[in-house]
Structure formats: C-alpha cells, structure tokens
Predict the 3D structure of the following.
Amino acid sequence: MYNNQRMNHKKEGTAIVVSPKSVNFAGMKRIHDFLLEVAGNNNREWFHAHQAEYKKARALFENYVQEMILRIAAFDPSVAYQTPKACIYRFARDTRFSQDKSPYKRHFGAFVCSHGRKSYRGGYYLHLQPGNSLVAGGSWCPPPPLLKHIRERIVDDIDRFRGIVENREFKKLYPVVGEDMLKTTPKGFDKDFAYQQYLRPRLYTLWHPISDELAGQPDGQDQLEHMFRVMHPFNAFLNEVFDDYE
C-alpha cells in the first residue's frame, strides 16, 4: 500500500492549482486516502466539512486525466479536443433507484471518448477506487438499434473482429469480450454462426484490473497508455459502426 509522502500543491484564490509534477506517487496517495475517507464517512455533513480535501483530490485527478487524454490522442486523434471536465463523472451519486442511499461515490472515474462521457461510442475508462481500480473500454449499454448494427458488423467482418479480440496481447489484457450475455443467439441472427460468443453481449465492453499503486508509479501513465493502445482497434471497430449509423 501507499507510504506517507508529501504532495506539493498551491491554492490560488478559490481554485486549486496543481502542477504536473505533483501527480505522482504522493499525489495518487492523496486521492487514495481521500477515497478511503469518503468510504468510511459517506454522508453530506462529513463531505461538506472536507470540501478542501475533495477539491485537492479532484484537481489532482483532473490533471492526471489531462495527461491521459494527451497520450490517447497520440494514437486516437478523435479525442484530442476533449477536456477533463467533459470526461470525468460527477462525484455525487444518483440514489433515486438504488437501495444504497450513500450520497457520494467511492471512486473517481473518467471516460475519454470523442463525444464525451455520456456517449455510447467506444472510449477509454479509468476507475480509481481503493481495492477495485481498473481500466475499461468499449461501448456501455448501446440502445437496441446500435446493438443490432454492432452484431451485424461483427458477422459481416468476422475475420477482422477476430483479428482484434483474439490477438495475443489483447487477450492477455482483455480475455473476456462483453458483459451481460444472452443465453441464446440474438433474435434475427443465424444460430449456426460459428462465433456466437461475439454476438451475445448486451454490453460491448472490456476491462482489466489494476493495482491501487499503478497510477502513481513513475511509469504509471506509460502502463495505462499501453493498455489503452491495445484497446484502440476494438474501439475503432465499434466507432465505425456508430459513424455509419449516425
């Protein structure tokens, strides 16, 4: 786990200004420690009393995501004009339909995608949560018409799709393609199609767990960049479908 180290930051007016050098091991420890505190004190009274800590952690995460965007844009130029604000999810939870009424999340999350974090398009997700950090990507909950088009494109271009998801390095990082699987062939598709496993996901997603410490390591951004670079052909395949649909 993290060791105690100092993190450099400065305050300018009401805004927290974070230098790129501060988003290192110590900066990630500050994020980690804040999220642990939230998990143990998930109520509005505690959160309002610790707004300064939240703003510092949020500023560090924004800075980290900015670097992530720049690195991803080097191989996926479609995200080049995205900003951390457009990519980072709000910290407050929507509790209307949840039995868990905790008002705040226990993680920071950012989805880097050409059309912003609310898009169905394929993108690159970073999730920082003590004990449950991960990278992920692909398309989350595409609506039925888009889902049908994705499956049709897979059938029509199965050799290319297999070349992506069965690549050795890809399978090493992302051994499972998709989530929320159907038990049978989707309606309207050939039951004799040889690669049923690629038609049954309702969510065309990928994910890979990472350690709590990875993001703050000297080569942390290098490691994340590699994971996202390997993911890129999968996202490109999905986004071609969305381009045709739009």
